[in-house]
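Lecture 7, part 2: worked example. A protein chain together with zinc ion.
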Amino acid sequence: MNLVVVESPSKAKTINKYLGKNYVVRASKGHVVDLPKSKIGIDVENNFEPQYEVTNQKSLSELKKLFKTSDELILAVDLDREGEAIGWHIAQELKLIDKNGKSKGKKPLKRIVFNEISKSAIDEAMKSPRSIDLNLVNAQQARRLLDRIVGYKLSPLLWKKISFGLSAGRVQSVALRLIVEREEERNKFISEEYWSLEAFVSLKETSNISISYHLSKSEKEDIEKIEKSDSLIKFELSKIAGKKPDLKNQSEVEKIVDNVKNAEWKIYSLDKSISKRNPKSPFITSTLQQAAVNRLSFTAKRAMRAAQKLYEAGLITYMRTDSVHMSDSATISAKKYVEKEFGSKYLSDKSLQYKSSNKSAQEAHECIRPVDFAKTSSILKLDGDEKRIYDLIWQRAIASVMQPAQVENISLTVLIDKYEFKSTGTRVVFDGYLKVFPEKISENMIPELEKETLLFPNSIEGVQHFTQPPARYSEASLIKKLEELGIGRPSTYASIISVIQDRKYVVNENRYLIPTDTGSVVNKMLVKYFEPVVNYGFTAEMEENLDKISEGKLDWKKMLKDFYFPFEKEVIKQDKLIPRSEFTELGKSDKKCPVCGKAMIIKLGRYGKFLSCVDYPKCKGMLSIDGKSESDLAAEAKSPEFMAKYELSPKAEDGREYLLKKGKYGEFWAHPDYPKVKDARPLVLRREALIEIYGEIPKTKDGKEYVLRKGKYGEFWAHPNYPEEKDIIRIKKKPQPESN
Ligand SMILES: [Zn+2]
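Predicted complex, written out as structure tokens:
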């Protein structure tokens, strides 16, 4: 009998099917050996020797027992560095090798590697076993120890200087820095007014031109307008004397309107062109996560959980990879599928060359693709998250061997004096890969008109806009940014993002990542006193070093040494330099203590900033950050103005009313036992107040009222069934002056 070890029980089940009864396949259930929880676990004096201990005795005992009656040990753990390290620990515990990988047992040890769990891949792997790759193991050890050192040295400093219980991680702190810096950019951003000029023209002569000036509306309204009149073509002022218009205010627009409204409008030029849109490379870890966030509204973590299940069930290739390469046999079978289902005109006529962005892409050697293209999710009877992730992977891999889509672009111009107006239309003339992997191409048809054709403006509209601050990161755009910076690897993106949220440094609101007060303060301290550690270039360099270790080009202990000693010196130095109150007291307040009347200071608590009496701990007086005490807020909630504006407070199951609280993003209703009971709800505007602020509430086609929601760029009207029904109307309010 032979013992085969893998990480997870479901993977064990799949492999067992293919190996037959001479093999027993067992799961280690992850690492059986790890660094200790109670101490740093690195013997610095003794050349950075890790002090590993058994962390999963139950699994290990079972493996030991089975191994006694086995002829050999076959390690079929995952093919990345972490898998290699798990196998290496197990082989040591079963006394087959020493820590340098030297064989010392009497029974043979085989390491088999495969990219997918299929009969053919397992058979192939069994034919060519190798020994454990110590370079991969060492790269994993180096990452583990490096992260351990940073966490163990920096966290106590955060406790001492900011607040107990905080922790700092190496790559996570850099991700936090990106998010905080983006928020700072947004806070500094000053919105600027600009104007555009639109003309809706028809081929029929009109008796009068309506001229209006208004705030920008949704695209939907324009389309409705064009549909209603069934022959209007939308033109937009595109150039003034050959240059892009730069209109700052209404009076500048009015002057142009005066010049063009009674002029002769006729087609000056007609341009037609076909452009190609190429399919994207098949998925790697980072692009799969981004697509899952953008298309399915998943978190990166949720996407990886589903992908892992699919891999372990033998349905997709390994999901941690940064290689876009697709094997020859897989490419052939994908092409066969396309030819059979859609015909040869959909088949890419040249062999596609996709490039990996990471030059050392080698964690695994293939992209993420289905094991068998003929099996769609419905044939496999998949459902839930796994179906949705499988479909995405299947579509993108199939699309990668298909023809580009062809889009026809038509543009018409009208030239009046120095003013050029332009209308552009797009139309998909050949869908190509879009047939399988749909992407948004907004089609808008305009008629092909001959030069000199006369046009008649039906309405001319000056439209006011305001520039928008840079958008916050979503999980998808953060992963993209980390990848661009060379920070993070297929195995780390999802965990980086979930850790900063678990630690409450960042909240995910409407799919955008916003730093909390705590996150901002932690980042401020790290950037001010430990810039080299949270430096983007430095972190990318460390990742490259780990890659070098995995290729056997760098000694892992040397890398640790080079990092450790200067870092430790810095921690000791900065500990003395950081003033005790710099990050616990965040500034003075002009409010007086409600208890003793003394001054108050801004402090950081578990739930964000608050005001505390200077005499704390002698005086326990405190106020919320805007100076309202709990009783102020309770009184506000019962005031006639408040009750006229908002719906009544929600009630808990036991009938108690929710309490009005004030947080970083304004006032909200909190469960009477908040924060123990984590239930906070937004204030709901009364109908009358809603209409007063936003005007009439828009209605859907079947007469239902839209609902006011908050998103990335502020508030918008959403279909009552949003987000299933992706129907929204943007509200573009003028930026209001700050109301303090
Ligand atoms: Zn006081």
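The pocket of zinc ion is lined by residues 593, 595-596, 598, 613, 615, 619, 621 (CB under 6 Å). Residues 134-161 form the longest helix (28 residues). Keep this in mind for problem set question 3.
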